[in-house]
Amino acid sequence: MPPPPQQPKNRSRGPTPAGENRRPQRRMASRDAAERAAFFARREAAAVLRRVLRGDATRRAAGSIKSLVYSPTVRNKRATFALVCQTLKYLPILKEVLALTGILNSKWKKQEELVYVTTYDILFGQGIAVSGSVEQLIMLQKDSLRTTLDKVCARRKVSCVEDLLGNKTAVKPKPRFLRVNTLKITTESVIEELNKIHMVDKDDMIPDMLVLPPGTDLHNHPLVTDGKVFLQGRASCMVAVALCPKPGWKVIDACAAPGNKTVHLAALMNGEGSIVACELNKERAKTLQHTVRRSGANNIQIVNGDFLEVDRNDPSYAEVRAILLDPSCSGSGISTERLDYLLPSHSRDNEDDASTSSRVMKLSAFQKKALSHALSFPSVERVVYSTCSIHQAENEDVVNSILPLATSLGFELATPFPQWHRRGLPVFQGSEHLLRTDPEDGLEGFFIALFVRKEAGGTSEERGKDDPLVMKEVRTKQVRGRRNGAFSSLRLSRMILWR
Q1: b vs e for 69-84, b when ≥16 Cβ sit within 10 Å of the residue's Cβ?
Q2: Higher model confidence: residue 169 or residue 211?
Q3: Strands of 164-292, DSSP E
Q4: Active-site residue numbers?
Q5: Distance between CA 331 and CA 68 in Å, rounded?
Q6: Nearest to 385, CA basis, from 255, 287, 198, 267
Q7: Cβ neighbours around 246 below 10 Å, total
Q8: pLDDT tens per residue, range 17-75
Q9: Best CA proximity match to 265, nearest among 231, 287, 295, 308
Q10: Which of 232, 228, 231, 233 is nearest to 193 (CA)?
């Protein structure tokens, strides 16, 4: 008697439960979605990496890593940011291994950034490979790459790849600061909205600035994408507040991109008056335009040109009352926040000599020209000079060299945020009026100098009645003599500013 026919191994003997035959399709769809996401994230990361590396090589960066990743053109920002940062972190190893294996030959040289990103992601990251030509290349050479990597570790006498990375500076967690765009929404409305998901505090010094816990990610929050709030550092916001432009004034933002300070000026002016925002770099001018559009400010005119070529005698600039000058600088005060420690140039630079490097000296020379030009406008009453640098050559030395000209034009140094504890380096008489912020304060490293024209503001005492950011000894003595229950003009003006 012949044996009974055997059932096929993969065939179900009983009825198929409802929905069971759809599970493989769901898993395949999920896998396909992950592959597609990895495919596009690598290409977005490669495009950002190309701009970062080229800007770093020429020392003419189009923006920081963060600003390039969080630009409107990048769709998958979170994945792109992670890929760019990790690829830069592993870049020396990737270059060495790819060179030893001979993979990055002339055929693939035009796509070298994509090769770097894909090699990192497949060797150290997700490991998801898709049908792209670069992915196929790396997958075919995966075993060779791993063998070469092991040889490099053995030659360097380290047990794992992480030991090859060296010491990379970690960013110390800081609170998340955001500035409410009062052109579109009230601070109270933002607090009410964010309190649903975060602990929110008001800053005690900057109007309309809120403080959230470190690591709070709001880049995709509707309040941010709609321009109702701006993710802006506290020190950066101090610059526009120090200028203190009044509604109805005509103001120049001399080096405006990316535009956060520009639109902050517009908010401080209640959208009244006019702001001329100058930006020489064409690509950065596009970023500035996007920032202005997102803010809803309609009193900003963007000029894609050099501030130094703006004719101060042109009738259209005869009524300029205030100028914010935040020129190109070394960025040494925000290098950690900008992730500069990941850049190839960081390992080449001698940090001990950075403050006196030829690059800093060239920047300082430009800064002096720009500040001299700003002070020369006939009707200007207030000029703020600021940098995100910690170097004396770009800060105190620039101000000190310009002081004789400033004095001859009727300007004197005023004291922005007199309650702030960190002042300028004591390298010349009057440096106590200058303001510095430092990472030790939990902020970026910024520098602010405020020039006020004496005849425009009257005496020091009279200016104090209108300007809550300027403190003089005469006014201080008067305030001390008042009774606690009386409102001095200084206290009243502070209430008006901080409301």
Answers
A1: bbbeebebbebbbbbb
A2: 211
A3: 176-180, 201-202, 209-212, 229-230, 250-253, 274-278
A4: 388
A5: 16
A6: 255
A7: 16
A8: 444 455 555 554 555 777 778 888 889 999 989 888 887 777 666 667 777 887 777 88
A9: 295
A10: 228
